[in-house]
Design goal:
Number of helices: 5
Shape: elongated
Oligomer: single chain
Mean pLDDT: 85
Radius of gyration: 62 Å
CATH superfamily of the largest domain: Immunoglobulins
């Protein structure tokens, strides 16, 4: 089976008329198989105008086919050419091709002429075109003496070339002695005739080697004209002039061109300034797709010219002084061209037929017929033939009617010659397409199934599918004249076997072909447009879906060519990866997926971006004293538009190597007018910036030194302050070198008293930024000026600033100082301000010195530590915080200026009232017995008054960590030891202890202790633990728990729900028992065995009874419970304040079921 693949072409329209013949898509006459008798047919021949290389043998081609094989003969210049008589001429066996051996002897010119080949057999004779043989020529230039040309600047000039006439015509170009092409432009250009035209000359046109070259391509030779010397003399002034045409001459001209050629129209003008050329068509528009401009628009070309391009064309030359026009009238003639060329005709005996030969041209061509190479007028007569102008009509042909007919269409511009045979045969049908050919077609595309056939008379063709009895219907399929069956839109159900049947009166033939429909190849993930920065990596994805029976090949193209042979490009499955991207990598990347049946492609553009390249060609123009124009050429923007240019300057005189910002301009601007300062040696550089960043700096411009001038500004930060009571120190920020505007920078320092009629006193100083005026009154206001000057003059008059001479210590102390005690830790002080004159300086504020002389409780002497508070400005009162309660204090007040403090006011004494005491310094429980505990303590370190008594509160804690009743006990203030009796045996107690003054209760301290255990009771506990009944009870409890666990396990495996929450509530861990929100009681007390302190977070009610409450992160679990408040000295005495609480529980009222261990402890 032969596999045939449908060509990859565009889909045809599916909307077809029923079963039509498309003559334009098929062979209009059947090809006769070569095994059948047929007249000759010319298959190959040399061109009509055959220019040969005289250095090589001459080969004149003439090939033909026929049955029987044809014989060949030649004519030369209209007479028989006997090749047997010329030993240099041989004919190729089985062919009519001639070889003339001129390389061994003979000359090409001997064989110039018109040759024609005839191929003949028993059925007729075919003839070739007239083949004109001419040898190529490349003659030398004639010797001539060329005088040097001298002319003035601005004149026009034409350098003639006048190349020798060659065959074919040479290609002309101008070069110098170094074989470098001379540059051409709108001003200087080469005309179609080869001359070199100058619209106006310039001094740089001066040279001695203007050389015209002629290249003869056929012989690969170049001929050279003698060099022409041109000297242009520079004229001081040359007059401008309007345009005039150097070529063509006059206002109008005519041009004739043949149809199908290239129409070239030329206008070259001279003038000063150089004219610009425009083209229009007077009676129409120029054809868009066929019009091209060459030679700087001086040449208009229209390709594939037609008769419709005839008309008037106008060229317009224009400069600033005028405009001129030239009209070229174009006429398009035409050598003959075919309308209908005659085609071979195969007829069966007694059939009719026609040969049509129809041609056109300008002028109209003449049609003539020949039969077997002989004009039909003198050819043997054939009764079945009738001639009607450009048509030959055949009726009831017989075998003797077979012949070869030639149609010749000619006019003055050329001729056309066509051979067409009439072959009379009687042949049954035969199918020429190979049997069982397999066609594979992509779905939804046309399928063309071939059925090439032959027969005489012409067979009728029918198609069948899958051996069905009825022929294929014409509303779905298209049957072409050459037998091809077309399925306009092939679908999956089009797959199958198709049978072609050919019938005529002599017989029938058939052939099977097979059709398979494949899924189209698709790109389901296309590469996407990418913008990447130079040096990065980019990847393109191309995922292809295809028919599973086809094997695709995926290849990548760059700009429609192969990928660069570079290791940076890697293709991995569905991806193309480009690493280290550079500028050359930008372009269009195309993924092409090919199968044997179709191909698809998808493209994406890669734009490589980067920061711009540095600007270059910096130029300074319009150089003035205070400004200059800077221009530059932008560097490549690297595919990201330049947004702005940054200009920097260097002052080589004052700060060499240091670049400063000068200006910024938009990215569309390439010039900037820059403001300059005097006496600066400027250099400039430019940087370009785009969205990716800033370029490197350009090369520095040339240096430009501006002239010196007086300073534009004066020193800043001028101040006047005295460092001593009798001086004035004047300081300023000096000008830098850039601001000096010239050499000899100095400063004129001027001063006078503000309140007075004194004249200004001035001094001129240099290279300093400070001047000291001595002998001034103390703290007197002065007006001060500092003016810059240099060798060119003074800066503008500066504004005066006010300063003061030096300060001295204040002379007077504040008066009427009195103290108002606010509370035990805070006092308010008032004083009268001092007179301003006595301050002798800038008033900075008032300063209070205060210290504690002694406590009201102690009389011992110790080191006195003074404290200081300063109040800014003119305030006359202030607060003293942080005082100690129940203390004696002394204070005084002083005024402060910039020099220091004045004298102190008389000491003022005041006392602070009592406050609440601090907690006792320590609390220890010693000598525990069965029913008593001894408490020892240290008094508070800060009693803050006279202690009145101590308060002790305590309560028991049982084995379930619950608090018992609270006992409140008052102890005299002079005691430091106390024995508690009648306590419970082996019981833990919690103690709360604090002191009191007349101001209230102080902070508490807590402690815990346990009374001792009775030995007899302990021994009974051991005895009980070893009793058999107790052991049995414990075993029973253990067995009960085990049975309960088994039941729970079984229920859980069966999916039953176990009341975990209820059990957790009943057997919760005492360590994590939460507060019972309903009654506010605490969770159970922990750490009973190791005697650790209680957990933090207990609360104590304000009536000093301990209550059970939720544990939180307070300082201790069971602390003293007054509400949090501050004493008068600001100390915090209510550290353990809490929520609203109930009275303490009497006895053990745990809401929790006791554990076995707790039960045992309760029992003992």
């Amino acid at each position: 089976m032969q596999l045939k693949i449908m060509p990859k072409k565009k889909r045809l329209s599916a909307g077809r008329a029923p079963l039509m013949l498309f003559l334009c898509q098929m062979i209009s006459a059947l090809e006769v198989p070569l095994d059948l008798v047929q007249p000759p047919t010319i298959t190959q021949q040399s061109p009509k105008d055959y220019i040969i290389d005289p250095r090589e043998n001459i080969v004149i081609q003439c090939e033909a086919k026929g049955k029987p094989p044809p014989s060949f003969s030649w004519t030369r210049n209209g007479t028989h050419f006997d090749i047997d008589k010329d030993p240099l001429v041989t004919m190729k066996p089985g062919s009519g091709t001639l070889t003339i051996n001129i390389m061994s002897e003979g000359k090409a010119e001997t064989y110039e002429g018109v040759y024609q080949c005839t191929a003949r057999n028993e059925r007729g004779a075919a003839i070739s075109n007239n083949i004109v043989i001419r040898p190529s020529r490349s003659p030398l230039w004639t010797k001539e003496k060329l005088e040097p040309i001298t002319l003035r600047n601005g004149q026009s000039l034409v350098l003639p070339c006048r190349p020798p006439i060659g065959l074919p015509p040479p290609i002309i170009f101008w070069m110098d002695n170094s074989f470098q092409r001379l540059p051409q432009s709108e001003r200087v250009s080469q005309g179609l005739n080869g001359d070199l035209y100058f619209s106006n000359v310039l001094p740089e046109d001066t040279r001695e080697d203007y050389i015209c070259y002629a290249r003869f391509n056929h012989t690969q030779t170049i001929q050279q004209k003698q060099p022409i010397s041109v000297k242009v003399i520079s004229a001081k002034s040359h007059r401008q002039r309007p345009p005039t045409f150097l070529t063509p001459d006059g206002n109008t001209s005519r041009k004739e061109e043949l149809r199908g050629n290239v129409l070239s129209l030329e206008c070259i003008a001279e003038g000063l300034p150089t004219p610009i050329i425009y083209w229009i068509k007077e009676d129409g528009t120029l054809p868009i797709n066929r019009t091209f401009y060459r030679n700087f628009k001086k040449t208009l070309q229209i390709v594939q010219v037609t008769e419709a391009d005839s008309g008037n064309y106008q060229c317009i030359a224009k400069n600033s002084l005028g405009t001129i026009h030239h009209t070229i009238s174009v006429t398009v003639k035409a050598a003959p061209y075919w309308i209908i060329a005659p085609q071979n005709l195969v007829l069966s005996p007694e059939e009719d037929g026609t040969l049509i030969c129809r041609a056109n041209g300008n002028p109209k061509p003449r049609i003539s017929w020949l039969s077997n190479g002989v004009p039909i007028e003198i050819a043997p007569d054939d009764p079945s033939r009738k001639i009607d102008g450009d048509t030959i009509i055949f009726s009831k042909v017989q075998e003797r009617s077979s012949a070869v007919y030639q149609c010749n269409a000619s006019n003055e511009y050329g001729y056309l010659l066509a051979n067409a045979f009439v072959n009379v045969l009687a042949e049954p049908p035969r199918i020429l397409t190979s049997a069982n050919t397999l066609y594979q077609v992509i779905a939804n595309r046309p399928a063309l199934l071939d059925c090439a056939f032959f027969g005489s008379p012409l067979p009728a063709i029918e198609w069948f599918k899958d051996a069905k009895g009825s022929a294929l219907r014409e509303d779905i399929y298209v049957l072409h004249e050459n037998g091809t069956l077309e399925i306009p839109v092939a679908q999956k159900d089009s797959t199958g076997t198709y049978t072609c049947v050919a019938r005529n009166k002599l017989g029938m033939a058939k052939n099977d072909v097979h059709l398979e429909i494949k899924d189209p190849t698709r790109i389901i993930k296309q590469p996407e447009y990418a913008v990447v920065q130079r040096g990065s990596t980019v990847s393109f994805e191309c995922k292809v879906k295809h028919d599973h029976t086809l094997i695709p090949t995926v290849m990548w193209l760059k700009d429609h060519g192969e990928l660069p042979n570079d290791g940076r490009f890697t293709v991995d499955k569905d991806y193309l990866v480009v690493a280290d991207v550079n500028d050359d990598d930008g372009g269009t990347y195309t993924c092409v997926a090919n199968t044997t049946l179709d191909n698809v492609s998808a493209s994406a553009v890669l734009s490589v971006v980067d920061v711009p390249n540095p600007p270059f060609d910096l130029e300074l123009t319009d150089q003035l004293d205070r400004s200059v124009q800077l221009s530059w050429t932008p560097g490549d923007d690297n595919n990201s538009p330049i947004t702005k240019f940054i200009i920097e300057y260097e002052d080589a005189m004052h700060e060499p190597g240091l670049w400063h910002h000068q200006a910024e301009v938009p990215g569309t601007q390439t010039t900037a007018q820059l403001k300059l300062s005097p006496y600066v040696n400027y250099s400039f550089r430019v940087m370009a910036e785009n969205n990716l960043g800033r370029s490197l700096p350009s090369e520095a411009s040339e240096q430009y030194l501006t002239k010196a001038a007086e300073p534009d500004k004066n020193p800043t930060a001028v101040e006047g302050l005295g460092s001593e009571p009798d001086n004035l120190v004047i300081t300023w920020k000096p000008l830098n070198g850039f601001e000096s505007n010239g050499p000899g920078l100095q400063y004129k320092v001027s001063w006078r008293q503000k309140d007075g009629d004194d004249e200004w006193t001035s001094v001129v100083v240099a290279n300093v930024s400070k001047y000291i005026v001595s002998g001034t009154p103390t703290f007197v206001p002065y007006l001060i000026k500092v003016q810059a000057l240099n060798d060119a003059g003074f800066a503008p008059e500066p504004a005066a600033v006010m300063g003061h001479s030096g300060e001295d210590l204040p002379m007077v102390a504040p008066g009427n100082v009195h103290v108002n005690v606010v509370n035990s830790t805070l006092a308010e002080v008032h004083w009268d301000p001092v007179p301003l004159k006595s301050i002798r300086g800038h008033l900075q504020g008032y300063r209070i010195y205060y210290w504690k002389t002694q406590s009201s409780l102690t009389r011992n002497r110790r080191h006195i530590e003074k404290k200081i508070l300063t109040f800014q400005g003119s305030k006359t009162h202030g607060m003293l915080p942080g005082l100690e309660p129940f203390s004696h204090y002394t204070l005084n007040v002083r005024v402060v200026n910039g020099k220091g403090e004045g004298p102190a006011s008389p000491d003022k004494v005041f006392n602070t009232p009592e406050g609440v005491p601090s907690a006792p310094s320590s609390l220890k429980i010693v000598n525990p017995t069965l029913d008593s505990l001894t408490l020892e303590w240290e008094p508070p370190s800060h009693p803050n008054g006279i202690l009145t008594e101590y308060t002790l509160k305590y309560q028991p804690i049982n084995s379930t960590h619950e608090l018992g009743p609270l006992v409140d006990l008052k102890i005299p203030a002079n005691k430091t030891r106390w024995i508690l009796k009648n306590l419970n045996i082996s019981t833990r107690y919690k103690f709360y202890f604090y002191a009191q003054t007349a101001a209230g209760s102080g902070s508490q301290i807590t402690e815990e202790a346990i009374t001792t255990v009775d030995e007899a009771m302990a021994s009974r506990q051991v005895d009980i633990a070893t009793q058999g009944w107790f052991i049995g009870l414990m075993c029973a409890v253990a067995l009960l728990i085990l049975i309960l666990l088994i039941v729970c396990f079984i229920r859980r495996n069966k999916g039953g729900k176990y009341p975990v929450k209820e059990k957790e509530d009943a057997h919760a861990d005492p360590e994590i028992q939460p507060m019972k929100e309903d009654d506010g009681t605490f969770g159970e007390y922990s750490d009973a065995e190791d005697h650790k302190p209680l957990k933090k977070g207990s609360r104590t009610p304000s009536d000093r009874t301990v209550k059970k409450e939720d544990s939180d992160d307070s300082l201790v679990d069971y602390g003293e419970g007054v509400n949090g408040q501050f004493n008068e000295d600001g100390s915090f005495i209510g550290q353990y304040s809490g929520k609203k609480e109930k009275e303490p529980a009497e006895g053990n009222e745990s809401s929790e079921a006791p554990s076995p261990v707790n039960a045992m402890n309760s029992f003992v």
